[in-house]
Design goal:
This protein is of the alpha+beta class and 507 residues long. It is built from 18 helices and 22 strands. The radius of gyration is 23 Å and the shape is globular.
Length: 507
């Protein structure tokens, strides 16, 4: 998962892009990057690390210009090397920068065609570089001496026709303007905002509405599936439905886990969705008669708080904070290697004895992926003196890999892939375990105000909305995402970074 932002303004955009990336930091902690256009001259800073580590005052001073794009990343394709930090850039035609959130399921075929037919050279494994080169090639093919909006939309149409997967794209054409594109199924989020300043209008495009909020941009609307938006450097906005949407199916896991609770995605409140998840989950607990022994409901911070609050309310028991989170430890299920994840869980959370000892505790989490965190937390609660520990997941069992931009483990490493609910409870050490029903999750997220028709629920249902995810592709994903593959990638990353540092020293 990644976060993207693009801004066209009448003033320097470096600070506002930086601020937007800080509130999108939850979408990726591996690397960060900003590119700005200073009167046709490209200004760039990108590197591995968190936003506040990547950008110093010196870097920010150099990021001049009133137009720019930014990105925060964790890798779902390619490697962890700083060479794959985004945005990416190609010189021809015009000078084009691009950043994206998502994953192309036909990346290998696309790269082969770009190399052998379009004669574009690719330096990395990243599907972002493939997207950039495809867009650049199609712009070159459609250019007739005038970079009109229709030229850009024709190029975008070809990109939509040739790419498959989930993707939200922001691109900057130097000395021209910004381009935004969203995949024809609307899997990955992308929202457009505006701000009236003096006689003109400024625009922002971002992964989540919180990025607009922090800079006082007004939400205009979500970018539609299969739509491209072009905003000139003078602030003229053009949009076109380049191809007919194949569906309108945003990823439901955004609402379960990834998005910030104060975000609005496709007209649906993430916070309200999580409250309703709690209502449905409580109903299921009551229906199964499991609520009678519960003394206290405790969330696993942070994303399950809203859900746990509603569970406690509907069960008629106390809601308490039982674990304190160290906010400076990254998310554990995307960390390479099981031993690192185990150690991280202990560093990440610390139990509060007062709220746990001598009580029957119901722990609420947003989801269970590997079970590593759940098992460790349950043991923490028992070590702290809990009489019984119950566990509830706001999401259904995660049984299948996500191929549209969320780096979930291989199927073999997903806890629920081949276990019954009773077996899962025994594995994580809970006295009982209950999951949300998929239909209830969908009902919790769906709002009448939204244009979304349904959701991508592939990690729960195994149904992939693009319709072209084969067993061979899933096998390929398995080989890339298992722990052994990630450990190898980490070694390769360190070797590449050492070589990069050596080259810099020699130069």
């Amino acid at each position: 998962m990644c976060g993207v932002v693009g801004i066209i303004s009448s003033r320097p955009v470096n600070q506002e892009i930086y601020d937007a990336l800080t509130v999108l930091q939850h979408r990726g902690q591996d690397s960060a990057g900003i590119m700005t256009d200073n009167k046709g001259m490209l200004c760039l800073r990108k590197s591995n690390g968190l936003v506040n580590d990547v950008f110093s005052n010196e870097h920010m001073t150099r990021l001049r210009g009133n137009m720019g794009i930014g990105h925060v990343r964790y890798p779902t394709a390619g490697t962890l090397s700083s060479s794959e930090a985004q945005p990416f850039y190609v010189n021809s035609p015009f000078g084009i920068c691009l950043a994206h959130n998502g994953n192309l399921v036909n990346n290998d075929q696309l790269r082969k065609h770009l190399s052998e037919v379009d004669r574009r050279h690719l330096n990395t494994e990243s599907d972002t570089e493939a997207l950039l080169n495809l867009f650049a090639h199609e712009l070159q093919e459609n250019f007739d001496g005038n970079l009109a909006p229709e030229t850009i939309f024709n190029a975008a149409t070809q990109l939509f026709n040739r790419c498959s997967g989930g993707y939200a794209v922001v691109s900057m054409i130097l000395n021209e303007g910004l381009v935004a594109m969203r995949d024809p199924n609307g899997i990955r989020p992308l929202i457009l905002g505006k701000r009236e300043v003096g006689q003109g209008t400024e625009y922002m495009i971002a992964s989540e509405s919180v990025a607009l909020d922090i800079a006082d941009f007004e939400i205009m609307r979500d970018v539609k599936p299969g739509e491209a938006i072009y905003i000139t450097k003078e602030g003229e906005l053009f949009s076109k439905q380049c191809i007919k949407p194949k569906s309108y199916t945003p990823c439901i896991f955004e609402f379960v886990y990834f998005a910030r609770p104060d975000s609005i995605i496709d007209g649906m409140s993430v916070y309200k969705s999580r409250l309703r998840m709690g209502e449905y989950l409580a109903q299921r607990i009551i229906k199964k008669g499991l609520h009678h022994d519960v003394d206290v409901v405790i969330p696993i911070p942070d994303t399950s708080r809203s859900t746990a609050l509603q569970v406690a309310h509907h069960l008629g028991v106390k809601y308490r904070e039982g674990f304190i989170k160290n906010r400076y430890i990254g998310r554990t299920f995307i960390m390479p290697g099981q031993e690192i994840r185990k150690k991280s869980v202990k560093q990440k959370l610390n139990p509060i004895d007062l709220e746990i000892r001598d009580k029957n505790v119901l722990l609420i989490d947003d989801s269970i992926v590997r079970g590593t965190t759940s098992k460790k937390i349950i043991q923490m609660a028992r070590n702290t003196g809990a009489k019984k520990v119950f566990f509830a997941s706001a999401a259904p069992p995660v049984k299948h890999p996500n191929v549209y931009g969320i780096d979930m483990p291989s199927t073999a490493e997903l806890l629920a892939s081949n276990r019954t609910e009773a077996e899962l409870a025994r594995y994580i050490g809970a006295d009982w375990l209950i999951y949300q029903e998929l239909d209830d999750l969908i009902s919790a997220v769906q709002f009448d105000e939204s244009d979304a028709e349904a959701f991508d629920t592939s990690c729960f249902s195994g149904e992939y909305v693009t319709g072209d995810v084969t067993s061979n592709y899933l096998d390929f994903i398995e080989s890339k995402r298992n722990d052994a593959a990630k450990a190898k990638k980490e070694i390769e990353r360190k070797q590449i970074d050492i070589q990069d540092q050596s080259s810099m020293t020699l130069s």
